[in-house]
Amino acid sequence: MGKLLYFARRMPMSALLGVLGGILLLSVFLGLLLGYLPIGGRDLADILRYQVLGGESPAIGMGAASAVWDLRLPRVLLAACVGMGLSLSGAVMQAIFRNPMADPYIMGVSSGASLGVACAVFLGIGTALGAGSMGVGAFLGAVAVSAAAAAAAGRFGGYDISYLLILGIALGAVCAGVTGVLVYLGANSTGMDVTLYWLMGSVAAAKLPGTLILLVVVAGAAAFFTTQARILNLMLEGETAAIPLGRPLLPFMRLYLVLNALLVGCVVLNAGLIGFIGLLAPHFTRMLVGADHRRLIPAAVLFGGIAAVWADILGRALVPGVDIPLGVMLALMGAPAFIVMLTRRAYRFGGAE
Description:
By secondary structure, this protein is mainly alpha-helical. The protein has helices at 2-10, 13-33, 41-53, 62-97, 109-122, 133-152, 161-185, 189-200, 208-227, 229-237, 239-242, 250-271, 277-289, 293-317, 326-342. It is 74% helix and 0% strand. The longest helix has 36 residues, at 62-97. α2 (13-33) runs parallel beside α14 (293-317). The model has no long low-confidence stretch (mean pLDDT 80).
């Protein structure tokens, strides 16, 4: 492990991203091949050729071709997008709060999203939106809570992040309480089942158009935050390190909180509440490449995509005939890995040399 860390930290950035990008593409390719209905490499190439270019029908049959294009491809891409987006969000939140326990939902985003779902399911607010009502409700709830936190940032205690954390906890508690009341008063078996499945986080209902939109959002957010690596490094050091450089951090923090809300909102809109990957991926990547966000941000994004794709593959293939939700698989895979990582002396939140 020590040799791997030494090699990874001294690898040129382009080579590191090339390796991780290659592993991610290979993982997506294997995700298209593996599953309840195994597909050969040649058959997959025929299916992709037919769907993109048209022409002669694939020899494997249109049923299998439709299953791969309409079901397996969207969910594999969505899993990758979820992993990349939440890993990016987790890395940014850990820098803002200088807290190793920070994750994408630290500001009460998950409670806001749950409240939005409860309103859509039990109050009928999202009836006009049909099947997408839960996702839209979650998106609006997550964005509303984060917007409130961003607006309040700096009004109490200046840049002292402890005030912001307390505010996030308070907002999350209020949302959780209201959600509990709605669930209790409007409890029915159908609504409870639907809400519980959404809270587990799943990519089983992925649709290609929505997935491609999320891919664009994640790519844009990753590109932006990569350009903000110096500011994120200053945030990790604290306000006292930024003041001599003439860089007030509060405006950047507000901007990052709003952008994080939009990013996480888009993720929960498509896949529900999926946890742990946003906490695990930045930590593992930090151990691998160090704490410098110029390397950490792109590496964490790619590693998060790899981990989520393999969690989805295992969720489909581990138990025949059973589709384990992505959020459950990430928790089952991530918790033991996280514990093992924390027991290693090589790990430091600020990055070990």
